[in-house]
Inverse folding.
């Protein structure tokens, strides 16, 4: 067990929990036995459920947490609620280094607040950021911040570039990531003052940890030419949700247009199409900049989506993400 | 001719101009003979082309303009270039009230600068805004600003709400439009200070020209519940382009997934799907807040897309958009 990745899971957060959490663990164990799960939640309930899933019980330890933060609670009320919640206890275990990484499908706002309260930021980082995975024509890229910080200055955006490139290396490839700033045009004079200042910092610094490619516009995020897209949390949140809304809109229209006959003949093609775009594969936003990694699984995802988040957690710990971020920051500040 | 809508067209702007412009006029004349076109551009060239299209010649007058603003020129260099350009002359005709509305598929930035230089703003408006049409589950809605103003205060956003609702009424329906502010969440405490101030202005004012529905998130822009989505030009530009990029990404993946066999059997369904989402139908951004309306057709659109823009121009003039905006503003400022 000592060599396994120790994942602290808020077993009560998100729709259909804890069932989807336990099913997700079961799915992940089919491909890897490399993780050990600390399940925070109502002990009796979890024990009963696990009795029926004997094959996962030897990879899990249950830690009782009497209370649960609801998905629709305000972040502050949720965070204040009590230190007895499953989310609080899961994150707290990182502080004592009992676990390596924490994973929750619960209330995003509360998770950000609790993580900020319990965990210190990495030396030099003032604002942690939420990063997500986006599908693109070749594989996936990372976009950050997605809503942790509504307003950001050039120092914050520069930090995001360092953290995002460390995450990209941890998850996908050890090649030097290509980074760009999200803007309304490609020319240097475009955008607001903060973007222009960040552009100059990233351009002037002879970075070796990432390759700064200038600005990127919204219509090119998914082209696959850029690995890490940096933006403030307001813009990133709008971009992410607009992309989600557009995908839903198009897929609904496609469904409406297909009759039973054409659906029958296109079954395999459509399945391939859906598989490629399956949002469960891109499930898992990562809260970066704290001294331990915290991963947010989508509240509405199912067991397969949750299993993908477990896989993301494993990669992050194995790749020493926090160390990679620290190294990147030293280079920037030097 | 006196009762026709007089459209001043920059015949040289955009890809494949002037051919697509003339073809677009030809297409529009098949459904309506309600417009008269003033074509600004190289006289000899246009005359030669029109000789081959006799059926459109009685609906057109050519006005010579020696110079052309290139699509990739910087807005300022384009605008400064000369008063002899087709774009400048087309917009200038509005100033003298020789024409009712101006339409260009050329350089967007230059069109905004030229329009601001030549035309006064509507009394009470300090920042004109660029509005676009978005497809949604039921029909179309309007989003503004899309990039004319990178930074906006609460007064600007309130003006955008008034102008957007006037445009919605002009194009689609005389019902009271439902308006919302684009934000990262629905709760009143979400977003930045300017959004909160705008929220309070729109909430406190007992508007009769539109129905304020609070905040909207990016994933609901296309649901069809909101008619006018208000945002600053930076956020609107990122949202629009991200939606475009997502649509392209999904359609490319769909194409890749379909084999010839399934394409054959799904031909009609896919055609219906493509028709519904055809971007040419949503072609035409409208520059609002000036004392005359200026419409921007997408530079890369074809003749069918340009014909759609002509149709938008006709509706705007027939519905007295400028008067509608003035009425809305009086109500807000009262």
């Amino acid at each position: 067990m000592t060599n396994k990745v120790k994942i602290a899971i808020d077993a009560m957060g998100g729709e259909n929990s804890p069932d989807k959490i336990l099913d997700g663990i079961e799915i992940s164990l089919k491909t890897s036995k490399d993780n050990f799960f600390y399940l925070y939640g109502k002990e009796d309930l979890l024990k009963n459920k696990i009795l029926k899933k004997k094959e996962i019980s030897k990879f899990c330890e249950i830690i009782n947490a009497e209370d649960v933060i609801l998905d629709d609670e305000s972040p502050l009320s949720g965070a204040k609620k009590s230190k007895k919640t499953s989310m609080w206890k899961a994150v707290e275990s990182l502080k004592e280094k009992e676990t390596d990484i924490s994973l929750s499908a619960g209330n995003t706002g509360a998770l950000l607040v609790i993580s900020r309260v319990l965990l210190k930021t990495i030396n030099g980082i003032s604002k942690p950021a939420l990063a997500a995975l986006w599908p693109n024509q070749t594989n996936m890229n990372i976009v950050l911040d997605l809503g942790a910080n509504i307003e950001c200055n050039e120092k914050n955006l520069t930090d995001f570039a360092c953290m995002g490139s460390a995450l990209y290396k941890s998850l996908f490839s050890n090649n030097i990531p290509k980074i760009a700033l999200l803007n309304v045009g490609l020319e240097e004079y475009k955008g607001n003052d903060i973007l222009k200042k960040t552009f100059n910092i990233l351009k002037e610094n002879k970075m070796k940890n990432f390759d700064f490619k200038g600005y990127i516009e919204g219509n090119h995020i998914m082209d696959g030419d850029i690995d890490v897209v940096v933006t403030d949390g307001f813009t990133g949140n709008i971009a992410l949700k607009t992309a989600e809304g557009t995908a839903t809109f198009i897929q609904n229209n496609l469904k409406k247009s297909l009759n039973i006959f054409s659906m029958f003949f296109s079954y395999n093609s459509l399945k391939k199409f859906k598989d490629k775009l399956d949002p469960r594969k891109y499930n898992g936003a990562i809260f970066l900049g704290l001294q331990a990694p915290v991963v947010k699984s989508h509240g509405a995802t199912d067991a397969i989506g949750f299993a993908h988040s477990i896989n993301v957690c494993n990669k992050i710990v194995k790749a020493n993400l926090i160390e990679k971020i620290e190294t990147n920051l030293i280079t920037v500040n030097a």
